[in-house]
Design goal:
The chain is of the alpha/beta class and about 290 residues long. The longest helix has 15 residues. Strand 9 and strand 10 form a beta hairpin. The chain folds into 2 domains: about 210 residues, P-loop containing nucleotide triphosphate hydrolases (Rossmann fold, 3-Layer(aba) Sandwich); about 55 residues, no CATH class. Helix 4 runs parallel beside helix 5. About 30% of the residues lie in helices and about 25% in strands. It is globular and about 70 Å long.
């Protein structure tokens, strides 16, 4: 899939500002950004749900049209389900909408639905509901699968189980576009990530290459105890902590000791995708 110079305005608000990128076939691509960054708007234009103000979306070198919708599966952030029917009845209902749907047995196998297949939709837990919604999304054997924050609100066990389901679908060479606010999730599942903010694409590459290009060394994190006289060229204040990216840990630790800071609570770790996300988008709370 490829998007070229994609713009979307809502009145005077520029939600998406000239984004261009490509997603190779068969990978999981993560679109990451703070609340209000333009992720969902971008995805809805890529899905063909929203019409761009300008720009184009291509799938296999053809501009998307109504036929494209037959080639995709979508799991929205919020989906209303029919009530008073079972998971199996729901699968049968949605299968009837497609010309060549997966069999129910195949959906049950891929999405691990056997334990809830006869359960009323109203009695599903959060994780069970997400498994079933994923099953609905893969009914048409999609060539492209959109997952918009599919694990939000799930407990850690349910999230890990859902990751396993996504890996199963990746193994079928299905191209996946994932949005998530969980950076560990993106680091585990995504072959490439794009980070956007204020409707603009900031970076795009594999998580490993992005981290190596932005960080070299260790990340030291220490409470700054309200001190406003700290001077660290490599450091930034995030909440109650001073975060320092350093190539020479020995020199940094000696400098910290000279500040007379209380080093209780100090941590040293290798930078991860969350650190990169904060570096690029800032730490200010978004509504």
């Amino acid at each position: 899939m490829r998007i070229e110079n994609l713009w979307k305005n809502f009145g005077s608000v520029k939600a998406v500002n000239g984004i261009s990128f490509s997603i190779p076939e068969g990978i999981c691509f993560g679109l990451l950004g703070p609340n209000g960054a333009g992720k969902t708007t971008t995805i809805e234009m890529m899905e063909g749900i929203l019409t761009p103000t300008s720009g184009k979306v291509f799938f296999r070198e053809k501009e998307i049209d109504n036929h494209f919708k037959q080639k995709v599966g979508i799991q929205f952030q919020n989906t209303a389900l029919p009530e008073f029917i079972t998971v199996k009845e729901t699968l049968k209902l949605f299968r009837a909408l497609y010309p060549n749907p997966r069999s129910i047995d195949e959906i049950v196998e891929v999405c691990s639905l056997s334990d809830i297949i006869d359960r009323d939709n109203r009695k599903l837990s959060g994780g069970q509901r997400q498994r079933m919604l994923l099953g609905l999304a893969i009914i048409p054997r999609p060539e492209m699968l959109f997952l918009d924050e599919p694990t939000t609100g799930l407990d850690p066990q349910a999230r890990r189980n859902f990751w396993n389901l996504i890996e199963k679908i990746k193994s079928e060479k299905t191209t996946i576009l994932l949005t998530t606010h969980y950076m560990d999730e993106a680091e585990v599942l995504c072959d490439q990530v794009g980070i956007i903010d204020s409707g603009r694409l900031l970076e795009i590459d594999s998580p490993e290459r992005l981290l190596s290009s932005h960080f070299d060394g260790a990340l030291v994190r220490v409470p700054h105890s309200g001190r406003d006289d700290l001077i660290f060229d490599e450091g930034i204040l995030i909440g109650d902590f001073l975060e320092i990216t350093t190539r020479n840990l020995d020199t940094t630790m000696k400098k910290l000791l000279r500040t007379d800071l209380n080093l209780e609570g100090l941590t040293i770790k290798k930078p991860n995708l969350e650190d990169l996300f904060l570096k690029l988008t800032g730490s200010t709370l978004r509504s």
